[in-house]
Amino acid sequence: MQIDIDYKPNNKQELFHSCNADECVYGGAKGGGKSCALVMEALAYGLENPRADMYIFRETYDDLEANIIKEWKAKVSKELYEFNETKHFATLINGTTVKFRYIRNFIDAESYQGRSMDWIGVDELTKHEKRSIQILLSCLRSAKGFKPRFRATCNPGGIGHAWVKEMYIDATNYGLNPVIDELTGLNRVFIPAKVYDNTILVKNDPNYIKRLENLPENQKKAFLYGDWDIFEGQYFTEFKRDVHVIQPFVIPEHWNRYIALDYGLDMLACLWIAIDEQDRAYVYKELYQNNLIISEAAARILEVTDKDKIKKRYAPPDLWNRRQETGDSAEDIFRKNGVVLHKSNNNRVMGWYAVKEHLKIELSRDEQTGKEIETSKLKIFSNCTNLIRTLPQLQHDERNPNDVSNTPHELTHINDALRGFCIERTHPTKTVIEDELYEINKAKNKYRDKVKGLAGKSASRSFINYGG
Questions:
Q1: pTM of structure
Q2: DSSP assignment of 380-398, as one string?
């Protein structure tokens, strides 16, 4: 019996279907035919492997219904499967089951731990945290001897943008080279998609591209061109690696130095920041370590500080909250362990605005060549890898676009420390000459005050003696 399927894959969809890698991600611009390709790839695997256990995930059942299940019912012949509307799964004629499921967060993902899945598909991969997908990947195994497969689609943006970009896009040089994971030995492939690849959509709805072209610049780059360096919802669009990240150099001894930290048992995030004579800030060291009690955290801060002369250490106000059991606050314990803290302003929105001011790109002229160059008030040493990694990943809060989203929480710790520094009114370092003049004048004033004091005492004694 021959059953015809109304599906003619475009060139990128053909690559997706012919890919033999363990993990394959098909992503980029909107309208590239990714969801359709995922559904048809699931069908092909299911028909090739009788009685396989297969799963397709999205973040909600509404999304499954509106996209994946709708695509399945439109493309897959009813002669090939039966669909259970109550339990949301399709059973193919060879006994293979395709379950349509959702994971909104890590807790949902954990509920699948321990299951055995021959094939996993995730539509909109970037809408999930890395740890959620890692739980699913731990379930990818076949007792039946089938070749397990992971297939996913995505667009730039979302809470998973950074890890997907790192693991699948950057690692493969935007799809040019397959990579092999050093730990697992599994190979990964990325297939970039653009709306122009979907010839059927372009033909049937030529205005779709025009609508994408009219989007704000950042969204247009992400959704029309599949640009992974800028994504929807990014908070610090000012961040440019070639401007803000610099190679380390020896910090001059006389520069003012500060520490800014955010503490919790889940993470101690600490930044060392120096200020030059032009009021530019240089983040030159970082500490990023979890599972430290306060005394251990204080010891690590002192260890990393070493011989640096620190003017102030800024910390969020919640460290001054006292615990009922002991009466001590976290600040008390830090102080008892040699780390004296100063309370920073905790206005979140104004703090993020202050960070934006520090990141703002400014034009300057090279002192030697006269060439116009881009610069900024904030520079980050390349050894501060966690700040560099997390800062551009921060997104707008959906409920308050002026604020930064608290999820994923792993991204916020070290940036909260940076926010605490940027909102404070630190002062530029005095030049060496200014510093010397200041010390000379300070010494003069001290001597003058001493002379006045002695003169006053002498006059008083003379008067008493004379009166006597």
A1: 0.58
A2: EETT-HHHHHHGGG-BB-S
